[in-house]
Amino acid sequence: MPDKRILIVDDSPTMRQLIAFAVKRLPGVEILEASDGVDALKKLAGERFDLIFTDINMPVMDGLKLVSLVRSDPAMKATPIAIISTEGAAEDRERALALGANDYITKPIQAARVLTVARELLGIS
């Protein structure tokens, strides 16, 4: 049984794999993937997650809308969320954090940075 569950939300299967590869270094972690915000909400509705990594730019529902909906749901509002995006402008970061994201990582991702953020948000030393 995993200690922590992580949901990775990105429309790019390759990016999901890269993020999963980084966080698989953590012991006792189960990783699930979603292809966009709507797919993520379906998975979040029936299961508990300890951390969400999400892209901003995705079809159907973007990551900022997902952050907003998770934060407005009492059952999920405390779940840590890290944005991973190509949008590197300060206003994008500030908007994501204002909506309730806990951290913001700019692509191209570095596995060490993803791992550091995962450890911090999961409370793993």
Describe the protein's architecture and organization.
The chain has 125 residues and is of the alpha/beta class. It has one domain: Rossmann fold (3-Layer(aba) Sandwich), CATH 3.40.50. Helices cover 42% and strands 20% of the residues. The protein is built from 5 helices and 5 strands. The chain has helices spanning 13-23, 37-46, 63-72, 90-99, 111-122; strands at 4-9, 29-34, 51-54, 81-85, 103-106. A 5-stranded parallel beta sheet has the order 2-1-3-4-5, with helices on both faces. The radius of gyration is 13 Å and the shape is globular. The model has no long low-confidence stretch (mean pLDDT 93). The modification 4-aspartylphosphate is found at residue 55.
Brief sketch in words of this structure:
The chain has 125 residues and is an alpha/beta fold. The protein has 5 helices and 5 strands, in the order E-H-E-H-E-H-E-H-E-H. Strands 2-1-3-4-5 form a 5-stranded parallel beta sheet, with helices on both faces.
